[in-house]
Amino acid sequence: MRISYRHIKRYKEIAQVMVKYGFSFIIERINKEGSGSKIDVSSSEPKDDIKNMTSGQRLRLALQELGPTYIKMGQILSTRRDLLDQDMIDELVKLRDDVETFDTDVAMAIIEEETGRNIEEIFSEFDKEPIAAASIGQVYNAVLKDGEKVVIKVQRPYIEETIKSDLEILKRVSGSIQDIIKDYNIDMKEMLEELSSQLLRELDYNFEAVNAVKMKRIFQNSDEVYIPEIHMEYTTKRVLIMERIEGIKLSDIDLIREKGWDTKKIAHIGVKAFLRQVFDFGFFHADQHPGNIFVLSESQIAYIDFGMIGMVDNRTLNFLNKFALAASEKNVDKIVRVLTEIDAIGEETDIDGFKGEMLYMIHYYYDIPLERISIGTVLNEIFRFFRKYKITMPPQLITLAKTIITLEGTARTLDPEFSAREISKAFIKNYYKSRINPKNIAMETKGNIEDILLDLKNLPKQIKNVLKIIEKNNVKISVEEVKMTRIEDCLKELTTQMTMALVLASIIVGSSLIIASPNIERNIGIKYMAIAGFFISFIIGLILVIEIVKVKIKKR
Length: 556
Description:
This protein is α+β, with helices and mostly antiparallel strands. Strands 1, 2, 3, 4 and 6 form a five-stranded antiparallel β-sheet that branches. It has a four-stranded mixed β-sheet with strand order 5-10-9-7. A two-stranded antiparallel sheet has the order 8-11. The chain is built from 22 helices and eleven strands. It is globular.
């Protein structure tokens, strides 16, 4: 599928950046597949300083130069430890929204257009100097008419069109990219769908507003966690107005210590708040880096930026518990059974190899005191095994693991002595507290009974349908061959070549018989027809040779 004409200019810009940073092989593959406009990469060589960089460094710089869509995609990919190696992730997490600010007059016009009111009707003060500029939006300070201090997020003009255009280009060339990354456990189409969904959600500030409102409801009676108020009456798809938080960013650890606040206590509050979100509500803030957490006092923190949210269900929590118990028992067979239950193990998984490496890792960490273990290190090691043996994890579990790794890093910033023991103890305590909660037991029992009754109710109908199909002799067996598509392509190529060869042979034989005829001298037209036949056969033969050479080059 070729890139449409309206995206050609943008595609060429992307291709030039990719070539600049040493990814010309991707453009060459797209050129061969014919899914994009032909780009000449033969004379393009990256500079020496770029050649000396690692793949991760070159990818980060390329994404940074390609703009908002690719910066945001890189940031999302930096959370996918199940897909990328650690050195690649270490580079992608450095991606920052270092983008140019857009004109404040444009931002004010967007606010007025979205809210249907003049700036003066909503705000008594509006600071025209943006306090932050990100890939998707820009942030301003303001004061409402009632005197409340707020922050305003305004979406960049034309950002939605730019992102949709970039996503369309990626979808068109995804087949070519899939061929390049075929040795990795990455389904390009599925990954693009996931990236598209997340990016398009971030383009609608209503999603973030709803997430914030739900999070505020979770902590409405808490004295330890504060969630800013969202002004829904002014919030739209492109504008978000939120209460301004007056506190110290968790990243400013020196200022927190200058205040004399107990950083260990603050770390404990953060861990407790996260576990409450996971176990009590199955809904958690999934971007808990120090820049998104404010410290209001040594006994209270506040969250901001609710664009990235994780959700976890009882099935996932049960899986984690079973996995942890199997690991503590050094039972790798049980680990494989648990992974099979959630369809994580595919046909390509080398189960014996996985068991061997998993057993080695368990023995390595088993006797190390918890105080000396980093959860991030252990999870990264597990994800490395999963990538190597092509084990696919549910997205919600990946988000949960990524958040735990971030949370541990944040907690260690506050308390260098923070250990895995504290998270592990709290995790186990909350899990079993949730499991033995009479309300949860009653709800789970009720759900199980409803499922059984529904299955029993539908069983006679399902049996009746099966018997009808058998009676009408409509039973069909579908056999899917993994490489059938490739076989089809080979057969098409072979059929085309054979047809051309038969036509070529027919023309040569026919022309030879005409030339050999004793009557040829009597009719000059027949003589020229024979010569024309030889000329046509030469052309067909030349085309046939070119086609065969093209197929061989493509296979290489």
